[in-house]
Amino acid sequence: MSLMDFGAICGALVFLALLGLLVYKMSFRH
Questions:
Q1: What is the pLDDT at residue 29?
Q2: What is the span of the domain harbouring residue 28?
Q3: How far is CA 1 from the centre of its chain?
Q4: Sequence-ordered alpha helix ranges (H) in the chain
Q5: What is the b/e burial string over 11-24, where b = at least 16 CB atoms within 10 angstroms of the residue's CB?
Q6: What is the per-residue pLDDT for 30?
Q7: In the prediction, which pLDDT does 28 show?
Q8: Whole-angstrom Cα distance, residue 8 to residue 14?
Q9: Tens of pLDDT, residue by residue, the chain (30 residues)
Q10: How many angstroms separate the CA atoms of 30 and 24, rounded?
Q11: Total structural domains within the chain
């Protein structure tokens, strides 16, 4: 696995984590 692949995977995981946290906070607020 190359460094660019590693960076892309890490970026995707961070994006999904932030998106999940945002959805969790919005649903928790209701």
A1: 78
A2: 1-30
A3: 20
A4: 3-29
A5: eeeeeeeeeeeeee
A6: 67
A7: 84
A8: 10
A9: 799 999 999 999 999 999 999 999 999 876
A10: 10
A11: 1
